[in-house]
Every structure is written in structure tokens, then in C-alpha cells.
From TrEMBL:
Residues 9-236 form the ABC transporter domain. PROSITE patterns: ABC_TRANSPORTER_1, ABC_TRANSPORTER_2. Belongs to the ABC transporter superfamily. Pfam families: ABC_tran. This is ABC transporter ATP-binding protein.
């Protein structure tokens, strides 16, 4: 019998921002063990801010977030936007990946043989095992993105959070990445920010529109009318086999293209 989905994270009436700049108001969202949630919204709408709340990098100004941890496994694996990584930091691919296990080092601060072979196994899965000893400054954007994915997965998290994982990666790896996420979703919840509505509708199970607050959409199929009713200024444009999106800037409503 299939296990009942478990509630892993509960965001309750959270308002958050930076200093006097309130970015998100009264956001509520529960993340269950079988979820695959796509987060969309205009630039500056607060998607990354929501992710920062989820990974504990930002505290709510009001409301609260409950993390339901169970067992020894880590709750969250996080793949940040590649642009947030300082590539000049002198650290090897292997070390970056193992740093996803930070709290699980042995008593002498060493990683175990099993942890190292798990890292190599992940590198093989995404085709970067030959880069193991390279320093991250020597990698292309797409290679770095793969390293960050391995780092997010090394702790076997219950929730995998990805902030625009398709930045820098080529079409081939993008497809492989989403197939990999689909398989991973059998054993972990996934929350993914993406500007690509085509991807969202093909892979995720539900959609959250973030634009100053959060509107939760119980399905992966969404129409322009529904987006408008969620106050999420994104238009789906039929353009070949995959719908493309035009995002409207949150503050000044300029339009610009996000096509892949
Ligand atoms: N560290 C910070 N300090 C002050 N303001 C910030 C900070 N980070 C983000 N903001 C502001 O918060 C608002 C929301 O930013 P956020 O990065 O969450 O948006 P986003 O939806 O992820 O945008 P994008 O699609 O461009 O990545 C923006 O107006 C941004 O300028």
C-alpha cells in the first residue's frame, strides 16, 4: 500500500521582506512528501524570497514556518541560483558536493568512504565524475549547475528545492534533469522555481504563483484567465509545441521575453 503523504513544511500567514521593503504578505503553503510544486511569477515578485524562507536564510517578519523533521535524514536539499555562487572560492568539485553533508561529518571532520562514493555516484549520474578534482572556478555554468545539483542531493533530503535549475544548462541536460527530478519525486518532495511555463506544465504537479503574495493552483494545467485571476501577470503564448511565456515586471509592468 502506498504511504499517505506527510506534511513536511508548513508556512503559516508569513509576511517577509528586507528592512522596510515588504516583499511577501500573508503567504500560506504546506509542502507534502509527494509534492512537485512549480513556482512562477514576475521578476521581483518574491520567488527567491520565498525560497530563502524555506531554507532558513530569511526569517519571517510575522507568521511562522513549521518544519516537520523525521528520522536522521536531512529535511532540505537546496540548489541555489548559480549566480549566487562565488566561483573564485578555491574549492574542488568533490568538496562542494560533500559540503551538502556539512552536519554529518565524522568526529574528526572527515567524510566517510561511503559518503565519498555516494558523491562519485551522483557525479556519474549527471556526467561530471571526470571533473571531481577540478576547482569550481574552472567549470562552465552548466557544469557548475550539475555540481550544485549533486550537492543538493547528497544528503538524501526529504524536500529538494531548486531555484531556476535550467539556467546555463543545454537542452539535452535540461530534459535529463527534469526526468531525473520526476524519478526523485517518488522519494522526495520537489519545489522548483522556473520561468519556463512549458516546463512547469510538463513536469510539476501543482503551481504556486508568487507576486507579492502566493496563489496556489491545485493542478499543472493553467490558463491565461486563471493566471490573471491569480494576479500573476504571465501570459502563455502558443509558440510551437511548447508554450512560451512573457513575464511582466512586478513594479513597472514592462514586458520582456523569457524564452528558452
Ligand atoms: N537582500 C535583499 N535586500 C533588499 N531587497 C531585496 C533583497 N533580495 C531581494 N530584494 C528585493 O525583494 C524583491 C523580490 O525579490 P526576489 O529575488 O524574491 O524576486 P524573484 O521573484 O525571485 O525575482 P526574479 O524572477 O527576478 O528572480 C525585489 O524587489 C528585490 O529587489
Amino acid at each position: 500500500m502506498k504511504e499517505e503523504p506527510k506534511k513536511l513544511i508548513e508556512i503559516k500567514n508569513v509576511t517577509a521582506g528586507y528592512g522596510n521593503n515588504i516583499v511577501l504578505r500573508d503567504v500560506s503553503l504546506s509542502i507534502y512528501s509527494n509534492d512537485f510544486i512549480g513556482i512562477i511569477g514576475p521578476n521581483g515578485g518574491g520567488k527567491t524570497t520565498l525560497i530563502k524562507l524555506l531554507v532558513g536564510q530569511l526569517k519571517p517578519l510575522s507568521g511562522n514556518i513549521v518544519f516537520h523533521t523525521k528520522g536522521n535524514g536531512s529535511l532540505i536539499g537546496y540548489l541555489p541560483q548559480a549566480s549566487q555562487i562565488d566561483k573564485n572560492f578555491p574549492i574542488s568539485v568533490m568538496e562542494v558536493i560533500l559540503s551538502g553533508l556539512l552536519e554529518k561529518k565524522g568526529i574528526f571532520g572527515n567524510y566517510s568512504r561511503n559518503q565519498k562514493s555516494a558523491a562519485v555516484e551522483l557525479m556519474k549520474q549527471v556526467g561530471i565524475d571526470h571533473l571531481k578534482n577540478k576547482s569550481i572556478g574552472q567549470l562552465s555554468g552548466g557544469q557548475l549547475q550539475r555540481v550544485l545539483l549533486c550537492r543538493a542531493l547528497i544528503s538524501e533530503p526529504q524536500v529538494l528545492i531548486l531555484d531556476e535549475p535550467n539556467t546555463y544548462v543545454d537542452n539535452k541536460f535540461e530534459g535529463e534533469l527534469y526526468e531525473m527530478l520526476r524519478k526523485l519525486n517518488d522519494r522526495m518532495a520537489i519545489v522548483m522555481v522556473s520561468h519556463d511555463l512549458g516546463t512547469i506544465t510538463s513536469y510539476v504537479k501543482t503551481i504556486a504563483c508568487v507576486n507579492g503574495t502566493l496563489f496556489y493552483h491545485q493542478s499543472n494545467q493553467i490558463t491565461n484567465e486563471q493566471l490573471a485571476s491569480y494576479n500573476c501577470p504571465i501570459q502563455i503564448i502558443a509558440h510551437g509545441p511548447v508554450p512560451h511565456t512573457v513575464l511582466v515586471d512586478h513594479d513597472n509592468q514592462h514586458t520582456h521575453n523569457h524564452q528558452h
